[in-house]
Design brief:
The complex is a heterodimer of chains A (119) and B (109). With 119 residues, chain A is mostly beta strands. Chain A contains no helices and 10 strands. In chain A, strand 7 and strand 8 form a beta hairpin. Chain A is globular, with a radius of gyration of 13 Å. The termini of chain B are far apart. Classes of the chains: A mainly beta (119), B mainly beta (109).
């Protein structure tokens, strides 16, 4: 059974950093690109970015709103994807989801982890 | 700034048919935008429904179908069930980046 579990969400002050993890099981992690999507309270979904598989250089792509502040990485030996968030702003407050894809069909989603940026 | 536009809300009767659309500010949506559709119910994570315009996942009910319609991506629900009441989001590909639509709140009434 494919499972994605996000963790690391917390209350953090503006300007600080936070790292989220997406722990996976039930599939060969190294064969799949992985994405992060967020949802601010009461708002719609926002694509954050994704990381390709190592065969494609593990290249990353980001939304303009987070480019230069957020970094996605992966540890294929642990089947974990990460989202490093620096210089956090209040508008980064959201539930953060990881999902499998998009180089393969975007299919499975985690349950999300809440990040609150507030002083 | 690319904008993907969906109907904010739609209402459909049980057993009826409804079509949700997804438009791009850059012009007509084609298969090259690899339209995806997702369903989200309150308090839950999104669920993937369709990918690459009209391809279903193994769990996608047969009443959901995708197409390109009048320069937009479209999601059609035929024989709507009460449990289809939810928010629906489309997602389009823009050469390395992806953009979600604002979502359509579907009410079954």
């Amino acid at each position: 059974e494919v499972q994605l579990v996000e963790s690391g969400g917390d209350l953090v002050q503006p300007g600080r950093s936070l790292r989220l993890s997406c722990s996976t099981s039930g599939f060969t992690f190294g064969d799949y690109s992985m994405s992060w999507v967020r949802q601010a309270p009461g708002k719609g979904l926002e694509w954050v970015g994704f990381i390709r598989i190592r065969a494609y250089g593990a290249t990353t792509h980001y939304a303009a709103s987070v480019k230069g502040r957020f970094t996605i990485s992966r540890d294929d030996s642990k089947s974990i994807a990460y989202l490093q968030m620096n210089s956090l702003k209040t508008e980064d407050t959201a539930v953060y989801y990881c999902t499998r894809g998009p180089d393969s069909p975007i299919d499975y989603w985690g349950q999300g982890t809440l990040v609150t940026v507030s002083s | 700034q690319t904008v993907v536009t969906q109907e904010p809300s739609l209402t459909v009767s049980p057993g009826g048919t409804v079509t949700l659309t997804c438009a791009s500010s850059t012009g007509a949506v084609t298969s090259g935008y690899y339209p995806n559709w997702f369903q989200q119910k309150p308090g839950q994570a999104p669920r993937s429904l369709l990918y690459s315009t009209n391809n279903k996942h193994s769990w996608t009910p047969a009443r959901f179908s995708g197409s390109l319609l009048g320069g937009k991506a479209a999601l059609t629900l035929s024989g709507v069930q009460p449990e289809d009441e939810a928010e629906y989001y489309c997602l389009l590909y823009y050469g390395g980046s992806w953009v979600f639509g604002g979502g359509t709140k579907l009410t079954v009434l």
